[in-house]
Design brief:
mainly alpha; 2 domains; disordered C terminus; Rna Polymerase Sigma Factor, Chain: A; 59% helix
């Protein structure tokens, strides 16, 4: 039987830790709450690293499946969102390294002195709805930042995470986060950044159709990998 996504509206106010506990207790379908809650963030981070929409979705699925399979290892020392973000970052970087071994020309300059022009993928129907020129220009400007600086901008200003959360997600110190963000600002053209900064939370949108697709695919993979068919609600 195929997987059916369950209604989660009534339980959407549950804290992450409560959802995790209930999933571990056998309410597997509630994992959908966490996926829908963090799809946007994981898409942004995966796309930031890979700069490819399709690969970003693949990484999201890999990250969710890995998180589900290791959910009992979440100790609560950091926020669940931070723990999940780190998994997605590691998955994206691993994919980039594998891709780099096959495509040697994909490597970025380590000194950050220059950036290649972003290779644009074919636009999707959802991408065509983005009509704001300022937003598009800002996305392009961020895409041209060296990866270390893009990551900090994405987490601090697009995802609006705190300095501490950003540092924890990236495995660096608070001071490094602050320094990289300052340097990233200097790299972006001041007039463009000042004009579009207030709309940063609209960047790299992960639309509802794509959200549904990822949620369904993750549940199908979990169902396939689960030794107990009863663990998944059909």
């Amino acid at each position: 039987m195929s997987t059916i996504l369950v209604p989660v509206t009534a339980q959407s106010e549950l804290r992450d830790e409560e959802v995790v506990a209930r999933v571990l207790a056998g309410e597997t379908a509630l994992f959908e709450i966490l996926m829908r809650r963090y799809n946007q963030r994981l898409y942004r981070m995966s796309r930031m690293i890979l700069r490819n929409d399709g690969e970003a979705e693949d990484v999201m699925q890999d990250a969710y499946v890995r998180a589900y399979e290791h959910l009992n290892q979440f100790a609560g020392k950091a926020a669940f969102s931070t723990w999940l973000t780190r998994i997605a970052i590691h998955e994206a970087l691993a994919r980039k390294r594998r891709r780099g071994r096959m495509e040697e020309l994909d490597a970025l300059p380590e000194n950050g002195d220059s950036m290649a022009i972003l290779k644009s993928s074919a636009p999707s129907p959802e991408d065509g709805t983005a009509t704001s020129q300022a937003r598009e220009l800002l996305e392009q400007a961020i895409d041209q930042l060296p990866e270390a600086y893009r990551a900090v901008v994405m987490l601090r200003e697009v995802e609006e995470m705190s300095v501490a959360e950003t540092a924890e997600s990236l495995g660096v110190s608070d001071a490094v986060v602050k320094t990289r963000l300052h340097r990233a600002h200097a790299m972006l053209r001041k007039d463009l950044y000042a004009r579009a900064r207030g709309r940063a939370t609209d960047l790299y949108q992960f639309h509802a159709v794509r959200c549904d697709r990822v949620v369904k695919a993750v549940f199908e993979r979990i169902r396939t990998n689960s030794p107990d068919d009863n663990a998944i609600i059909h």
